[in-house]
Give the backbone structure.
Amino acid sequence: MESTHLDTCLSVQPYKAQLLKWIGNKQRFAHEIISFFPKRFGAYHEPFLGSGAILGVLAPNKAEAADSFKPLITIWQTLKKNPEIIKQWYRERWEEAQQGDKVEQYEKIKARYNANTNAADFLFLTRAAYGGVIRFRKADGYMSTPCGVHKPIHFGVFGRRVNERAERVRGAEFFHREYAESLDRVREGDVVYCDPPYSHS
Ligand SMILES: C[S@@+](CC[C@H](N)C(=O)[O-])C[C@H]1O[C@@H](n2cnc3c(N)ncnc32)[C@H](O)[C@@H]1O
């Protein structure tokens, strides 16, 4: 079957800014990975989106990006719908973090997230957690990563990244779903990039 939308012509410009700090992200290798993609293809599919490093660098005309982790995909869906909300989420928590001891404030936000899983707190935690490692307890999904030694980027810098990233994902739709469902959506002529979790993690 011929692809009906071989419309994505590859002309990939360097792009390094990360919206989320995410262990295992493929930012550093994005250009090399993309160099293996065909020059022209239909839709781009990324079933294990994470921080979306490849999607961000590729900035395809038409894409389906998905992840089984709800708070993460809510961030991406919100970015697409209204980037100002993402900026506001981050700014509020960045300011909250300034209102006392850095570690104590981080632990407060983490406790709030653990009491009520939500995308807004999770967004800040990805930027502030130690080494961008988002670790969950197996038994109950409790997010356990301690506070990072670094200073989370200023909301102004983050806001500029939001604007850039929102542009880059214009052609993408975001879905909360299992990878098998994403793979069912692939048509001939499309490109699929899979970066599943490591088996030991
Ligand atoms: C190694 S990370 C992907 C990193 C990504 N390439 C990046 O640059 O940030 C793997 C992702 O797969 C997601 N994931 C794990 N199991 C999944 C499943 N069964 N279906 C869909 N996504 C899944 C995780 O939530 C995580 O975001």
The CA atoms of residues 4 and 42 lie 7 Å apart. Residues 22, 24-26, 47-48, 50-51, 53, 67-69, 72, 178-179, 195-197 surround S-adenosylmethionine (CB under 6 Å). Residues 84-152 form a domain with the Adenine-specific Methyltransferase; domain 2 fold (CATH 1.10.1020.10).
